[in-house]
Amino acid sequence: PYTGVSGIIYCYIWQPPAPYMTLSGNIFRQIWCHLAISALISPLIWLYMTLYVYLYAHIRPYIKYIWHIYDISVREHRQV
User: Fold this and answer.
1) Where are the domains of the chain?
2) What are the pLDDT digits (tens) for 13-29?
């Protein structure tokens, strides 16, 4: 995140604003802006993926267990 914040400050304060990722302006500035935005977004994606994997790994066995009990009860009910 620190790279992203400093990169965006560099993009919009020390350099004159130009259209993002166009051919106008300095190519190093465009690369730095791209790195800055990706450095800001990547921790959010990492956090989302970590939470998703954690919840999927810990909740899925309970869901399968409950679904198995429901399936057995439905089968027993159909046999009667």
Assistant:
1) 2-79
2) 555 554 554 555 566 66
